[in-house]
Specification:
- The radius of gyration is 21 Å and the shape is globular.
- Helices cover about 35% and strands about 30% of the residues.
- The strands form 4 sheets. Strands 5, 6, 13, 14, 15, 16, 17, 18 and 21 form a 9-stranded mixed β-sheet that branches. Strands 8-2-1-12-20-19 form a 6-stranded mixed β-sheet. The protein has a 3-stranded antiparallel β-sheet with strand order 3-7-4.
- With about 400 residues, the protein is of the alpha+beta class.
- It is built from 12 helices and 21 strands.
- Strand 9 and strand 10 form a beta hairpin.
């Protein structure tokens, strides 16, 4: 069978390009199939969309040669403060505070806008001769044989490789065509996403308020600007999103508080429904799933992209080591190593965030007293708090080399 590339990647969001670059660094040829026109996204102006990159994810970007070009646009996360409360009573007196000074490695993470991160990925892919980027086309069909996999694109083009990787999101066509089923449910919540300007400096602090209607995250961006991820019930979110800008801000202010002074909208307003979606398997014959295609999680703690980059680092390492040993990279034995490395960890974290959301997204006085006590106890124990800090920074568990800042 003539191969168009060693590995075919369906999906060109962020995980797909990251995996392509990691694989190309170790000598694989890769084809990335992106349904969206790449240049339009790379040339977009400020729209408020940003990611909280854990320290381990920043290390991966450094090894891929990307961080040097985007570091100047990032905002270090120096402190994370978590508490609950209501719009009527304000924040609870019990809070959990993580400070980057409690670990030796530096900032726990960095905020970085989507436009800068994607543009860096696009530039790096275009400069890498081992990567072929096909934008404006989607995978319509896939066929697996004993020696490879062939995909048919919406343009009619057929491509053949030794392995197909689905980086195509929660509604992954790659997973569906491979017969991989999913488990999941909606939360009855919708995230309202935007960016704001504020009078006072944020000091590199990320805030996570747990309100009865859902969590509110205030995430620091460069300058006196923050990204907002605000969860409400589906009905409330739809009503709020329909409001004019001034009324939207009036709805946000009692939830936000006045600790950063006056606020004003700085970016576009987005919404997306919140749900949990877990693939029953991360692999199938000559198929592997990465990121949301494998596990779509609640945005509490902003771990979605970081989970995906953990998949990227693990899969790139498994495939690279397999090839060095002379193994077939698409064999069930090789792909099972990837699944064993990632499935338990990502499922456990997804269910943990699901539990936290259910525990905090209510106004039950008994549950409120229990969770406030728990927050206070963790905050008072430095050893336990340090463990949570390392978890937030992505430094715990069995880390692939790229997340340690080392080449494969």
């Amino acid at each position: 069978m003539i191969q168009d590339a060693d590995i075919l990647i369906a999906g060109g969001g962020l995980n797909g390009p990251a995996l392509a670059l990691a694989l190309a660094q170790t000598g694989f040829s890769v084809a990335v199939i992106d349904a969206r026109p790449a240049p339009a996204r790379a040339e977009a102006g400020f729209d408020g969309r940003a990611y909280a990159l854990a320290l381990a994810s920043k290390r991966l970007l450094s090894v891929l040669g990307l961080w040097q070009g985007v570091a100047a646009y990032s905002q270090p996360i120096l402190r994370i403060v978590t508490t609950d409360g209501t719009t009527a009573t304000g924040p609870s007196p019990f809070f959990l505070a993580f400070d980057h000074a409690e670990i030796e490695e530096g900032p726990m993470g960095f905020m970085l806008e989507d436009r800068f991160l994607y543009a860096a990925f696009l530039s790096a892919m275009e400069a890498e001769p081992r990567i072929r980027l096909i934008s404006g086309a989607s995978v319509e069909a896939q066929e697996v044989t004993a020696t490879g996999v062939t995909v048919t694109l919406s343009t009619g083009v057929r491509l053949t490789g030794r392995l197909l990787v689905g980086c195509d999101g929660r509604q992954s066509g790659t997973a569906t065509r491979a017969g991989i089923r999913r488990t999941g449910w909606g939360y009855g919540q919708t995230a309202l996403v935007t960016a704001i300007d504020h009078e006072r400096p944020h000091g590199g602090t990320a805030w996570q308020y747990f309100l009865p209607s859902g969590p509110l995250a205030i995430l620091p961006l460069p300058g006196n600007r923050s990204s907002i991820v605000w969860s409400e019930s589906d009905a409330n979110a739809a009503a709020i999103q329909a409001l004019p800008d001034a009324d939207y801000l009036d709805a946000l202010r009692p939830r936000f508080g006045d600790f950063l002074g006056g606020i004003a909208l700085a970016g576009k307003r987005f919404t997306y429904p919140l749900s949990l979606s877990l693939a029953h398997s991360f692999v199938a014959p000559r198929v592997a799933l990465v990121g949301d295609a494998a596990h779509g999680v609640h945005p509490i703690a902003g771990q979605g992209l970081n989970l995906g980059l953990r998949d990227v680092a693990a899969l790139a390492e498994v495939l690279t080591l397999a090839r060095r040993r002379g193994e077939d990279i698409g064999s069930p034995l090789v792909l099972q190593r990837y699944q064993q490395w990632r499935r338990f960890d990502s499922t456990l974290l997804a269910m943990g965030m699901d539990t936290v959301n259910q525990l905090f997204s209510n106004d039950n006085p008994v549950l409120r007293a229990g969770r406030d006590l728990g927050i206070g106890i963790v905050n008072a124990l430095p050893g336990l708090r340090r463990g949570f800090i390392r978890q937030a920074a992505g430094l715990s568990g069995d880390l692939p080399k790229l997340l340690q800042g080392k080449p494969i």
